[in-house]
Amino acid sequence: MPIERRVRDVLLAEIMDGAAVLEIGAGDRSMGDKLRAARPGIVYESLDIDPQGEHEYRDLSELKRQFDCVFALEVIEHLPLEAITPWLCEILRALKPGGTLVLSTPNTFFPMAYLRDVTHQTPICYDELGALVEGAGFEVTRIVRIYHDPLHRKLLRRYLFGWLFRLISVDFARQIVLVAHKP
Question: Structure pTM?
Answer without folding.
Answer: 0.90
